[in-house]
Predict the 3D structure of the following.
Amino acid sequence: MLGRVNHIALAVPDLAEAAERYRSMLGASVTEPDNLPEHGVRVVFVTLENTKVELLEPLGEDSPIAAFLAKNPSGGMHHICYEVADILAARDSLVAAGGRVLGNGKPKIGAHGKPVLFLHPKDFFGTLIELEQV
Ligand code: CO
């Protein structure tokens, strides 16, 4: 059911500094920041030939990445996003196999305007997984 890696997300304490570091030290192409209040994050994307890296900083009071940054103050890998063709079918087959979806189980609209879901990291060896319908 998994397609390509859509992006790898890194939580960072200072998004402007991280974006500038990727530009100046790695020569990367980095998008302008985008606020995603529904997800509690502000993001930029590092555009690569085969995938993207999403840099995230907390936005608002109860950002889901605030606790992660409290534990990892200098930042770290936050999640990996895999593409799926049909997110509801992917969710139903995961749940039927005993997997857990975070939140209310309904897809939200993600950073690319497409439906996304997050899977419980304890089911996947400590890594938070995002599924994005493409
Ligand atoms: Co993501």
About this structure: The chain has a mean pLDDT of 96.
